[in-house]
Amino acid sequence: MKKVKVLVVLAFVCGMVSAQGFGAPLSKGDKQLNMGLGFNSHGIPLYAGVDFAVHDDVTIGPEVNFVLDEYSYITFNFRGDYHFNRLLEITPDWDVYAGANAGLGVGDYGGSALQLGIQIGGRYYWSNKWGVNLEFGGGNTFGTKLGVSMKF
Predict the structure, then answer these.
(1) What phi and psi values does residue 41 have, to the nearest 5 degrees?
(2) DSSP string across 21-65
(3) The pTM is what?
(4) What is the pLDDT of residue 18?
């Protein structure tokens, strides 16, 4: 896992160093769908969510996480992220962001529970529409996510 983190950091640094045109990966009014797998001690969660750009640097949107394991549960979160591209002068092929989320988790572990967390992540767009996403999180939601993003 440490090797993966080092590779991601190196990829971000290379992307920033070679940046020529700076700008937001999503402009105000744009949307993107995010989906993929998560990693935690309770199994491998699936997630899907939508980001709505309310500003060139800010996105908000819902997210659903589902884990089917010994203890099945589902979380419904609302998240907000600040995208650092313009601040750090990073090309829009890359997206570096951080934010927070809050929601409700329901499952076999005893009813419903408040879900609170923070996240930091990055995304690389290999085309105008598609990108790959890696995110690390903390709180009582699951931590690491790997997936794809599709602008629409």
Answers:
(1) -80, -5
(2) S---SS-TT-EEEEEEEEEBTTB--EEEEEEEEEETTEEEEEEEE
(3) 0.80
(4) 46
- Exposure of 14 by Cβ count < 10 A (0-12 exposed, 13-18 middle, 19+ buried)? exposed
pLDDT of residue 78: 97
What does each C-alpha distance from 12 to 68, 106, 150 come to in angstroms?
33, 36, 20
Q: Which of 34, 78, 79, 26 is nearest to 53 (CA)?
A: 26
Other CB atoms closer than 10 Å to residue 152's CB: what's the count?
Answer: 8
Angle, CA of 51, 140 and 10, to the nearest 5°: 60
* The pair of three-digit structure tokens given for residue 27, joined into one six-digit string: 């402009």
Averaged in consecutive runs of 10 residues, what is the pLDDT profile of the chain (152 residues)? Answer: 52 49 85 91 85 97 86 89 94 95 82 86 96 90 87 94
**Cα separation, 119 vs 58, whole angstroms:** 14
Rounded CA-CA distance 139/152 in Å is 30
pLDDT reported for residue 143: 76
Structure-token pair, residue 32: 């993107």
Q: Which two tokens stand for residue 127?
A: 């085309």
